[in-house]
Amino acid sequence: MREQIHGGDIYRHTIAADFSVNSNPLGPQEAVVRAVRDSAVRMVHYPDVQCEGLRNAISSFEGVDASEILCGNGAAELFFTAVLAVKPKRALLPAPTFAEYENALRLVCPDIRYYELKARDGFAVQEDLLEELDAGFDMFFLCNPNNPTGVVTEKELLGKVLQKCKEHGTILVLDECFIEFLEEPQRYEMQKYRGEYPELLVIKAFTKIFCMPGLRLGYAVSANASLLRDMASCMQPWNVSVPAQEAGTAALEDYRDYLEATRAFVKEGREYLIRELDGLGYETYESRANYVFFKGSPGLYDQALKAGYLIRDCGNYRGLSSGYYRIAVRSRQENERLVQWLKQL
Fold first, then answer.
1. pTM, 2 dp
2. Residue 253 CA: distances (Å) to CA of 60, 137, 204, 249
């Protein structure tokens, strides 16, 4: 059995609050909960293998044609199918970043290289990435904002990265699963450049922003019809369930107020946690997502677990050592209780 390397392991721990998972602290929309409940009567039917209704809803949300969308069983399935479709011989990964990129690549890619994100740079991507890309790769993964740091790669640099990928024929898998938590996500979304860059594959999920990790729902956007077709051929049929399709469609029917409230709530909570952690002597970084990345003392994870708090120990991320942690923005009461506990250490 594969070792669990992610947060959210509430099944093997007794906890009072889970800070290890970065889902929307406001919880799912009521319309989504209703849609899941109402979908129960349709469990006797197979799901729509084309996800037609869901893709049409995503099309309106993203401002792209439905033919440029591929739905998956969470973003993770799409990372794996992208790798299986491209079959890269050489790939580049930032470090630290989301572990499933590497897990997918290890299935087929014999040569994986790493671009080190350095603590002295605040774990931000630097211009020297462009030199790394000049070495020539079949595939490059980039998460924006990055997981686990929450650090954003600025749009100007992203544009240069895209140009480098175009020059070298490198497929850029751009993970934007946390981008909707940014105060101005439209400044950083790159799918608008898909026509100019067929090398671009943007992947998003309902998991985090719409708080439905248990339903497993993600999607890819690209103008590269051949790539999407090859990815689809690597998927099992009926991979997106009836409840997931109906929940995703419901989430996008009336989302503007929900997303605005989410961004305001997350900003307030994130700034509170960073301010309090800084005051306690922890080293924090410039996260702009719905979580805070910081350096503390080794052993904090176990101490927190004993107190009933599940936090993300980031020591198993490539490029990080023991003592790095990530905590999600939760409710005000949960955030305050965690801070009070930290003050007692």
1. 0.95
2. 10, 40, 17, 7
